[in-house]
Design goal:
With 174 residues, the chain is α+β, with helices and mostly antiparallel strands. It contains four helices and seven strands. The strands form two sheets. The protein has a five-stranded antiparallel β-sheet with strand order 2-3-4-7-6, covered by helices on one side.
């Protein structure tokens, strides 16, 4: 067994980008794209620490429930949005540069969840094969349950966004 920086029998450092078992070799990039246009901002939160995530989850759930009638129709989507917001904000807080900005926007048919940090040097990575407990699955979760996911940079921030169906005026999901 070798530690990081020690050469193994294949001639690669364990945990290095050349190690075929390294997460960096199995991770893949997320396609860079801007979200669709024509969304109106509903609410924005600024986070500086992971301790603020519980308040974000509660506030997002309240915000989503405020416009929902009836609540059961939005229930699953709200749960999914809270999960994705928490995962993306955690990624931004752990791997980005604060503050992390979470914005909820909406158009007639869709919610847009946008999470931004100030680290323009690194692109979001989708976790590849790795053991449970090693983390890195936030983008996989987002890709599985959101309508669409992407990322882009502005002059000062990196944004990861996800789209979710929004209920219409009768409370039916679009």
């Amino acid at each position: 067994m070798h530690g990081p920086g020690q050469v193994d029998d294949r001639g690669a450092d364990d945990g290095s980008p050349n190690d075929p078992d390294s997460p960096a070799d199995t991770d893949e990039g997320l396609a860079s794209s801007r979200p669709p246009a024509n969304f109106a901002a509903v609410r924005t939160w600024a986070l500086n620490t992971v301790q603020e995530l519980a308040a974000l989850r509660s506030a997002l759930r309240r915000e989503l429930a405020a416009g929902a009638d009836p609540e059961p129709e939005l229930g699953t989507v709200a749960d999914q949005m809270v999960l994705v917001a928490s995962e993306l904000a955690t990624n931004a807080l752990r791997h980005g540069i604060p503050p992390t900005i979470v914005q909820l926007s909406r158009n007639q048919e869709t919610f847009l969840l946008d999470v931004a940090d100030h680290d323009l040097r690194t692109a979001p990575r989708i976790a590849g094969t790795r053991a449970p407990g090693l983390g890195g699955f936030g983008l996989q979760i987002a890709r599985r349950i959101a309508l669409d996911v992407g990322w882009y940079t502005s002059r000062t921030t990196k944004h990861v966004w996800a789209l979710f169906p929004a209920p219409d005026v009768q409370g039916r999901l679009a």
